[in-house]
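Board work, copied verbatim: PP4R1 phosphatase
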Amino acid sequence: NMDSTLHYIHNDSDLSTNSSFSPEEERKSKVQDVVPQALLDQYLSMTDPSRAQTVDTEIAKHCAYSLPGVALTLGRQNWHCLKDTYETLASDMQWKVRRTLAFSIHELAVILGDQLTAGDLVPVFNGFLKDLDEVRIGVLKHLHDFLKLLHLDKRREYLYQLQEFLVTDNSRNWRFRAELAEQLILLLDLYSARDIYDYLRPIAFSLCADKVSSVRWISYKLVSEMVKKLYMASTSTFVVDLMDELVEKFCRCHKWSGRQTFVFICQVKCHFVHLFCLLEGKTS
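↓ predict structure ↓
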């Protein structure tokens, strides 16, 4: 019975972003002609909390896992049918449900396009950034994939939040920091030389001093790629300043581990040493 199925949707105020909608108006907002309407209504009803308690505690997670596929099938023109359900799942009390959405939000952004992503997905993405590490790792693993879909001005807003990825619920979670270093390498292509120097450089130097060797090795590659990116930029002052900092912080470090770090960074890219020779004899 379609009416009884829709009862799950219309009587849950959390599924509607506008409480002034009447049940009939809300029902019309979820009507489409791509798949049988009863099938879509049944899917939407799966987010009802009572079902999770009486039918299957994992039902919300399965619904979250399938949502990108449903969105792809319906098309972006029918996103209004899924928007409330997506927001309900994004605020689910179970972290496994939120984690599932966090791992797929970049795929959903491709389906929806830049306008819907900026209006409907960015707020959810921002919420995931402040969530548990189990959820944050989902957005971190695909950080580049998501940010590249945003307009430049919106993308730059996240430069201020990248530093927060260095802080985790468990300091032993070194894979989190290693993933951050991997993503920063990809993010170099999305930002200007000034943004790289002002925001990504401090994070890279922090990762180079990490206690875990696996994190440090990825960070050496990050710094090397950063030098290459700044060297090829039209403004050469950034790469000169970066070279100076590398020399002072690592090459002339009073600890052998710091000097070893300098050697490892140079070792990553063979052209790195040649850059030092070109830039005012920084290695002498």
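Residues 170-283 form one domain.
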